[in-house]
Write a structure and sequence with these properties.
This protein is mainly α and 202 residues long. It contains 11 helices and no strands. Helix 1 packs antiparallel against helix 2, helix 3 packs antiparallel against helix 9 and helix 9 packs antiparallel against helix 10. InterPro entries: DctM (IPR010656), TRAP_DctM (IPR004681). GO terms for molecular function: transmembrane transporter activity. It is a multi-pass membrane protein.
Length: 202
């Protein structure tokens, strides 16, 4: 019932997407402590403590990644890279190849929110000029950003996994490589088979 309640609540406007996490947390708290009674009051405090430690580590990673983002923005690295691509590409296939390389690099150094603000206005007009549908471009962009979340130096998903499962970050990198390869294969399919992204639109 919880997924259905979330969908109804979000699409009816009863609560925002950002508030959905709080709704889920309250729901789980009630179910686990009052209905199933799997978490006692003493254990609940331990769960809260561990959760706060994880949130603190995530905020620390985000603060460092945002600082790195500001350095690259001040140096105009994304803009210069895309200008190079724009000046040296004359075909759609070449553009898509370089676009993926560019976005993978961007995903590795910028958080997705900064990338949305900085990169999308740069690539959208050029992509449209090559006949790439904006929705298709959006799917390519998001796929690259998600892969970027598994790529150093930001790679926030890897840092969270390392902290949560108490494994060295190098070990997490190594374990994630097979999945990275699968994601890259899927990215190629998404890029060069636009029907996968545009089927429902068409």
């Amino acid at each position: 019932p919880m997924p259905i309640a979330l969908i109804i609540g979000i699409y009816s406007g009863f609560f925002a997407i950002s508030e959905a996490a709080a709704v889920v947390a309250i729901y789980i708290l009630i179910v686990e402590t009052l209905i199933y009674k799997e978490i006692s009051a003493k254990k609940l405090m331990q769960v809260v403590k561990e959760s706060m430690e994880m949130v603190g580590s995530i905020l620390l990673i985000l603060s460092v990644s945002l600082a790195l983002t500001n350095v690259f923005i001040d140096a105009e690295v994304p803009t210069k890279l895309f200008q190079f691509i724009q000046e040296n590409v004359d075909s759609k296939i070449s553009f898509l190849i370089l676009l993926n390389i560019f976005l993978l690099f961007v995903g590795a150094i910028l958080d997705i929110f900064s990338a949305l603000v900085i990169i999308v206005p740069l690539i959208l007009p050029v992509a449209i000029s090559f006949g790439i549908h904006p929705v298709h471009l959006g799917i390519i962009f998001l796929a690259n950003m998600q892969i970027g979340y598994m790529t150093p130096p930001v790679g926030i998903n890897l840092f969270i996994s390392s902290y949560r499962f108490k494994k060295p970050i190098a070990e997490v990198y190594k374990a994630s490589m097979p999945f990275m390869i699968i994601l890259l294969i899927v990215l190629v399919l998404i890029t060069y088979i636009p029907q996968l992204s545009l089927y429902f639109i068409n």
